[in-house]
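Annotators were shown the component list below and the corresponding predicted structure, then asked to write short factual statements about the assembly.
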Amino acid sequence: DQQVKQNSPSLSVQEGRISILNCDYTNSMFDYFLWYKKYPAEGPTFLISISSIKDKNEDGRFTVFLNKSAKHLSLHIVPSQPGDSAVYFCAASTNTNAGKSTFGDGTTLTVKP
Amino acid sequence: DGGITQSPKYLFRKEGQNVTLSCEQNLNHDAMYWYRQDPGQGLRLIYYSQIVNDFQKGDIAEGYSVSREKKESFPLTVTSAQKNPTAFYLCASSLRTPGSGYNEQFFGPGTRLTVL
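Structure shown to annotators:
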């Protein structure tokens, strides 16, 4: 049973437009959510996170939205840039074991110039 | 210049041989993790350690072993019991502050293991 799901394996957007990456989870105990970005043959790097006490967190061009009732979160990138082309992983963790995260399968974002 | 190093970047092994992947961090993090990534899939947790001399199995620990004798080091041994060891292996570390909130993980560059 996959507890964190990213249902879109890939997403293609035009440079300058908005990219929206989605993530769903099933475990109601998850209360911290993180997004990581990964380039080929490299390790993921942390991008942005959100606690369950918030519904939005913003950092520059990146905004994460959390809908707890729907068990859904999304990452918005505005405006999208070609350098944003990468695999984006959603991850979730619980406060009782902070640091140990469950990852989704990732969404490959391609931003076309 | 703090970070996580993994060596080697590429590793080839004959079927039936054990092999050890290195992971070192100088971030003074208590917690360390090993993940496996297969094509088109996410990161699956193999083992993790929250403190020296202690570690726990993750979701796919069978065929793997670890040790945590030093805070900075968390080597992973892929044993001959692992049926499908060809994969991309990632090591990560994080601060350990139970009950105080999230801690993002810092990842190494990964080791690609190929079994011939």
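Statements collected:
1. The CA atoms of residues 60 and 78 of chain A lie 9 Å apart.
2. Chain A has a mean pLDDT of 93.
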